[in-house]
Amino acid sequence: MKYNFSNIKKAKKILDKKDCIAIPTETVYGLAANAYSDKAVKKIFKLKKRPHFNPLIVHYLDLEDLIKDCEINHNFIKLYKKFSPGPITYILNLKKNSKISKIVTNKQNTLAVRFPKHLITRKLLKDLDYPLAAPSANISTGVSSVCYRDVNDEFGKKLKFILDGGRSSIGLESTIISLVNKPKILRLGGLSLSKIKKVLNKKLIFKINSAKILSPGQMKLHYSPGLPIRLNVKKPKEKEAFILLKKNKKFTKNIYYLSKNGDLKEAAKNLYFTLRKIKKDKFDSIAVEKIRNLGIGKTINDRLLRASKFNG
Ligand code: TXA
Ligand code: MG
User: Averaged over 142-160, what is the pLDDT?
Assistant: First the structure.
């Protein structure tokens, strides 16, 4: 998608006034505001109905901007060089003199940071003199937004502006890695773990299913379209919407395909889009066939599992 300079100018104008807008990223759309302003970030929590204890990710253009706020280390540099801008979020220590609003971090001394790749958002970040705090652009616990229409369905007139950047190319949130101590994966995401492992050249610690909730992306119900979901289904019930990874002539009724030929990247891109579509098509429940637990398939399964915790 091409730049629309007048839209970027409009986005900047609203953000400069300490208001919220939605921004496109390659993972999912974000609900963005000036990360240095208490007033601005408070609006994100309110709009999203997000509990105050759940900290936000801050989006930077590049390393030069980041080092004003965060301590960096060897592991960070290795990963940054290889994967940023892109679908990976790093947890780092905040600098003592950082200007990040305490509301962003819930007064913790660590910060989640990401460098989005989407060109429109990069152009916007270049024009701003502050970074953008941005959680996914959806009401808390719901499905993230992957296009303009999704964001509009979530917030309607309550949101002043949506910067349109087309469909998010990855369609699932970033992978979160804490680099404060030993590298630790906190959330599976758009970047596969095998790629991260190769660069760090060591085993990764996982805190994804830990009983102690470090990161509320780890909370049980999340990414839910608000409908019951059954997983690993071979044969759907009469009135269920049935999600298949690829075309299968055996099934003809109420079918939704995530990809043409079983490509997992394509399936990831279509997952949230499909969940929203099924809701709009007025189904009461969803069944999903087994999805290969490989590469980004692991992230798809993680999201489906959390969405399947819906009970009501
Ligand atoms: O792809 C993405 O990461 C998208 C786009 C918009 O960048 N953002 C996103 O944000 O998914 P959100 O807020 O929906 O999820 C961020 C997760 C939350 O689960 C939050 O708890 C965790 O990151 N998080 C934020 N700051 C943290 C910190 N300092 N330590 C541990 N986890 C943190
Ligand atoms: Mg989210």
Answer: 97
Range 8-206: architecture per CATH = Alpha-Beta Complex (3.90)
How do residues 162-173 score in pLDDT, each as one tens digit? 999 999 999 999
Cα 279 from Cα 275, distance rounded (Å): 6
CA angle 280, 303, 190 (to 5 degrees): 105
Q: Does 219 contact ligand 1 (Cβ within 6 A)?
A: no
What does the domain layout of the chain look like in residue ranges?
8-206, 229-307
Judge whether 242 and 289 are in contact, CB under 8 Å. yes
Q: Is the pLDDT of residue 55 over 70?
A: yes
pLDDT of residue 220: 66
The reply to whether the predicted model has a pTM over 0.70 is: yes
- CA-nearest residue for atom 17, ligand 1, is 217
What is d(CA 51, CA 44) in angstroms, rounded to the nearest whole number? 11
Question: In this predicted structure, what is the pLDDT of residue 309?
Answer: 87
**Is the beta carbon of 31 within 6 A of some atom in ligand 1?**
no
Ligand 1 centroid–CA 2 distance in Å is 27
Q: Closest ligand 1 atom, CA of 176?
A: 23
